[in-house]
Amino acid sequence: MSEYTRVQGIIATEANAPTTSTTICIPEPGANDVVVKIQACGVCHTDLAYRDGDISDNFPFLLGHEAAGVVEAVGSAVEHVAVGDFVVLNWRAVCGECRACKKGEPKYCFDTHNASKPMTLEDGTKLEAALGIGAFVEKTLVHEKQCTRVDAGADPAAVGLLGCGIMAGLGAAVNTGAIQRGESIAVIGAGGVGMAAVAGAALAGATTIIAIDISDEKLTRAREEFGATHTINSKGLSREDLVEKVQELTGGFGVDVAVDAVGRPETYEQAFYIRDLAGRVVLVGVPAPDMKLKLPLLDVFGRGGALKSSWYGDCLPERDFPMYTALFQQGRFPLDTFVDERIGLHEVEQAFDTMKQGKVLRSVVEMEHP
Q: What sequence ranges are listed for the domain Enoyl reductase (ER) (predicted)?
């Protein structure tokens, strides 16, 4: 292997073990690959899931994926970006050729692109990059279509979050849930993804936006910082009690859109019943593999509407990332408000602990480059 350079990065070597800072070898980019100098990368729950072996056991993993940076080198056939471009990385680099793309539904692309070569350790051990990106590293190697150009004047720590969790929540409300001006929405779970769904609904013009969580602190932030019009602390509430409280806020009907940003059977059941007849349920929280859902089939039939899963907020990076970057810069979408702390690369493990304690929406690694 012809090495491009050696850089420092954060890897997971075994399940439920602390991460390690080590030297990563970046190969020369293949024909359609690019090397990106990472400026900032958010610490996402998905990275923790990789570290703990909840996604696969194909260790070692190069963690990190919610990232923004500058293109430093390009392969011989790259046309999508150029050296010097400021980009947000994405894990849905659509192929344009699969059956979903040819049906005009690229958000469901079955054959997304990744770099043609693996990054490795110094001894040649191949690394699996988290979500095909691997961005807790000074530089990373990705496919050119994993790079979306946005305005170079934007804060990397803020716009990099569009690469995963914030886009997932925002898109769950706006794209999958198709929330409209004047409609009502309830979001169960006020973490980063749920808060982004609240902010997306506010941006779209929803007039009743209900944030539901068991943390008063999170609910206060949802109302004061992200646009919730009402909040409900659901701790200790039965499903029937929660339904009643939501109906009290919606003229007795329930919401037009209910977003489950937690991803548990009990929260999905709550979302199913707090909506209006013919309302839309959106599941964006990721369930564990062993979770099962049981609903009366007559209720599924009788309530009508739509039950949808939201993958990556049903986003199209080339359409959505530049648009939401512009809205952020105009002061119309609070991307920077999700950034609760800015940390160094060596602080990723501590950030996982902070995340598990529910203290932040996002910790963001800011890289120090000479």
A: 9-365
Q: What angle do the packed helices 265-274 and 239-248 form, to 10 degrees?
A: 40
Q: What are phi and psi of 266, to 5 degrees?
A: -70, -35
Q: How is residue 188 written in tokens?
A: 């169960």
Q: Indicate the CATH number for domain 3-163+334-366.
A: 3.90.180.10
Task: Specify whether the CB–CB gap between 294 and 317 falls below 8 A.
Answer: no
Mean pLDDT of the chain: 96
* Residue pair 186/234 in contact by the 8 Å Cβ criterion: no
The model's confidence at residue 1, banded by pLDDT at 50, 70 and 90, is: very low
- Looking at residue 266, its pLDDT comes to 97
pLDDT higher than threshold 90 for residue 162 = yes
Give backbone dihedrals phi and psi of 228, rounded to 5 degrees, phi first: -65, 140
CATH code linked to domain 169-311: 3.40.50.720
Side-chain-side CA neighbours of 178 within 13 Å: the count stands at 7
Look up tokens 């609910």; give the residue.
Answer: 219
What single DSSP character describes residue 340?
E
Instruction: Give the residue among 218, 224, 160, 162 at the shortest CA–CA distance from 194.
Output: 218
Which amino acid belongs to residue 42? G
Domains of the chain by residue range: 3-163+334-366, 169-311
Closest CA to 136 of 333, 353, 351: 351
Per-residue burial over 321-350, b if 16 or more Cβ lie within 10 Å, else e, is: bbebbeebbeeebbbebbbebeeebebbee
As to burial, measured by CB atoms within 10 angstroms (0-12 exposed, 13-18 middle, 19+ buried), residue 233 is middle
